[in-house]
Amino acid sequence: MNEDYGSLRLRMVERQIRARGVKDERVLEAMRKVPRHVFVPPDLADEAYEDHPLSIGKGQTISQPYMVALMTEALELKGDEKVLEVGTGSGYQTAILAELAREVYSIERIPQLAQEAERKLEEYTNVHIKVGNGTLGWPEEAPFDAIIVTAGAPKVPGPLKAQLADGGRLVIPVGSEFHQVLYRIRRRRDTFSEEALTSCVFVPLIGEEGW
């Protein structure tokens, strides 16, 4: 590799993320800071800052950098939020959230991925990871100011809507197993409004309220 990872990270933010319309400076700064190459398999480290998702094993992926930034921006984090992440995966999205929120609770259904992510996220004292069925949320820690789902769902899981705080935002891909639309859902008391953000393709959300 001719360039260091730091330079590649800065280029990724400018060309793939800011150029596509992500404006939240806190999100851009987190994307500049978190070393994405640490969260991918070692043999794929040189591809970590390229404009596409990568396999992390177990049939799972680390999302395209732009999609991570877009979903994070859609959560509208200011710094004092309690966030639920459904699908820890590599832990990269978790790290971005940890830079931007007060507390991050992340659920992963595959034990090995949860353990690897936990090891890579050791420096973040505000991250809490558990193995479980993410479609049911984390009721013991609810309500959450923001919820992010990093897998495609056939519908919005009821438990996640129920665990969203008043005024909270839920960002989730919804659709078929092979194509989804990314939605931002806002809660105002007992009313939920949906806003379509973009089309996308994620691995299936597995669980009682998923596939």
Structure write-up:
By secondary structure, this protein is α/β, with parallel strands linked by helices. It has a single domain, classed as 3-Layer(aba) Sandwich (Rossmann fold). The protein has six helices and nine strands; from the N terminus they run ααββαβαβαββαβββ. It has helices spanning 5-17, 25-33, 65-74, 92-100, 111-120, 158-162, and strands at residues 54-57, 60-62, 82-86, 103-108, 127-131, 144-149, 164-175, 180-188, 191-200. It has a seven-stranded mixed sheet with strand order 5-4-3-6-7-8-9. A two-stranded antiparallel ribbon has the order 1-2. α5 (111-120) links the parallel β4 and β5. The radius of gyration is 16 Å and the shape is globular.
Counting structural domains, the number is: 1
Beta fraction: 25-35%
Distance between the termini: 40 Å
Low-pLDDT runs: none
How many extended strands? 9
Spatial extent as radius of gyration: 16 Å
Biggest sheet features: 7 strands, mixed
Mean pLDDT: 97
Q: What is the CATH topology classification name?
A: Rossmann fold
Task: Indicate the CATH class.
Answer: Alpha Beta
Portion of residues within helices: 25-40%
The total of helices stands at: 6
Order of helices and strands: HHEEHEHEHEEHEEE
Query: Mind telling me the CATH superfamily name?
Result: Vaccinia Virus protein VP39
Q: Please state how the strands of the largest beta sheet are arranged side by side.
A: 5-4-3-6-7-8-9
Helix/strand/pairing class, anyone? alpha/beta
